[in-house]
Design goal:
single chain; Rossmann fold; two-stranded parallel sheet; 13 strands; globular
Length: 324
C-alpha cells in the first residue's frame, strides 16, 4: 500500500499508532483522534498530520476526509466491560461514529474503508468460528455495535460503490496497549506484587493476536479482497487461557510466589458480556496467502515483555513504584 491519501480515525491509539508507523513512510497519512486513550507522542514522530476530532461529530470528519483515497476506521470505545455500566457508549462511539465516517465518505467520494470489527459479533459460537457462521448473536453492547456498524458498511458499499472490508479481530495485544488482560495484570501486580486478582475463574480461553500481525493482516485483506464488501477473521490458530496469561505476566515481571485469587461472575465469566471461549477460523484470509507470524501464547509472551518495559519505565520516570 503506497502513494495513497489515508485518514486513520483513532490513529493515535493502540492499533492506530502501529498502523501509522507501518504506512506513513509511503503514504500521505492524516490522524484523527480525540485523545481519550490515544497519545500524540505515539504518532508525531512520523511526520503525519494530526487532527483533534471525535467521530461522534460528523463535522469533525467531513473536512479531513475530503481528498482521501482510504479511511482506516479504528476509533472506538476500547473497553468491552464499560457497556455494563454505560449502555450508550458503544452506540454513540462505535455505531454512530461509524455512520458519520461513512456519510463523510459518501459526501466526499472516498473510495474505501477498512473497519476494525471484533470476534464479539459472533457471541458464543462453535469453534473455530468461520465468517459465514450464523445467526450472529452478540452478548455485549460492544459486539452489537460492531455488528451494526458492519451492516452499515455493507449497505454503504452496495448503495454507493464504496469498497469496504470489516476485520473481525481476536484479542489484539502488544506495545502501547492501554486496556485488556495483560495490561490489567501488570498494573495490579505493580500495586501489589504478591497477589493477583483474576476476573473470572481463569479458564477463559481465547485467541491473542500481536498488534504487528493485526496491522499486516488488515492491509493484506484490503489489498487482496476482490469483493465490493467483505469480512475477514483475523487471529491465530490456537488459544491461551487466562491463568496461563497470568503466569506469563508474573514471569515477565520477574516475580515469584504470587498468589492468584478469582472474582467470578455468571458461569465463571469475568464480567457480563464476556465471551468465555473464542477461537476464530482464519482459513479465509489464509487462502489469500496471509498467516500470523506468531501463535497466541507467543503473542502474549511478546506483548507482556513489551508492556512491562513500557509501563514500568513510565512509572519509574514519574517516581512511582517499580517492579519488586
Amino acid at each position: 500500500m503506497k502513494d495513497l491519501n489515508i485518514l486513520i480515525t483513532g490513529g493515535a491509539g493502540f492499533i492506530g499508532s502501529h498502523m501509522v508507523e507501518r504506512l506513513s513512510s509511503h503514504n500521505d497519512v492524516t490522524v484523527l483522534d480525540n485523545f481519550s486513550t490515544g497519545k500524540r507522542e505515539y504518532v508525531e514522530k512520523y511526520g503525519v498530520k494530526i487532527i483533534r476530532g471525535d467521530v461522534r461529530n460528523i463535522d469533525d470528519i467531513i473536512p479531513y476526509s475530503r481528498g482521501m483515497d482510504l479511511i482506516i476506521h479504528l476509533a472506538a470505545n476500547p473497553d468491552v466491560r464499560r457497556g455494563e455500566v454505560d449502555n450508550r457508549v458503544d452506540l454513540e462511539v462505535n455505531f454512530i461514529g461509524t455512520y458519520n465516517v461513512l456519510e463523510s465518505m459518501r459526501r466526499n467520494d472516498v473510495g474505501g474503508i477498512i473497519f476494525s470489527s471484533s470476534s464479539t459479533v459472533y457471541g458464543e459460537a462453535p469453534m473455530p468460528t468461520p465468517e459465514d457462521y450464523g445467526p450472529l448473536e452478540p452478548i455485549s453492547f460492544y459486539g452489537a455495535s460492531k455488528l451494526s456498524a458492519e451492516s452499515y458498511i455493507s449497505a454503504f458499499s452496495h448503495m454507493y460503490g464504496i469498497k469496504g472490508v470489516s476485520m473481525r479481530f481476536a484479542n489484539v495485544v502488544g506495545p502501547r496497549g492501554t486496556h485488556g488482560v495483560i495490561y490489567d495484570f501488570i498494573k495490579k501486580l505493580m500495586r501489589k506484587s504478591n497477589e493477583l486478582e483474576i476476573l473470572g475463574d481463569g479458564t477463559q480461553t481465547k485467541s491473542y493476536l500481536h498488534v504487528r500481525d493485526c496491522v499486516e493482516g488488515m492491509i493484506f485483506a484490503y489489498e487482496r479482497s476482490v469483493k465490493n464488501y467483505d469480512e475477514f477473521n483475523l487471529g491465530t490458530e490456537d488459544s491461551t487461557n487466562v491463568v496461563e496469561i497470568a503466569k506469563i505476566v508474573v514471569d515477565a515481571m520477574g516475580l515469584r510466589d504470587v498468589r492468584f485469587s478469582f472474582r467470578t461472575g455468571e458461569d465463571g465469566r469475568g464480567w457480563k458480556g464476556d465471551v468465555k471461549r473464542m477461537l476464530l477460523s482464519i482459513e479465509k484470509i489464509k487462502s489469500l496467502g496471509w498467516k500470523p507470524s506468531m501463535g497466541s501464547t507467543e503473542a502474549v509472551r511478546m506483548a507482556a515483555k513489551e508492556l512491562v518495559g513500557e509501563i514500568y519505565g513510565k512509572e519509574d520516570t514519574h517516581g512511582g513504584g517499580g517492579i519488586r
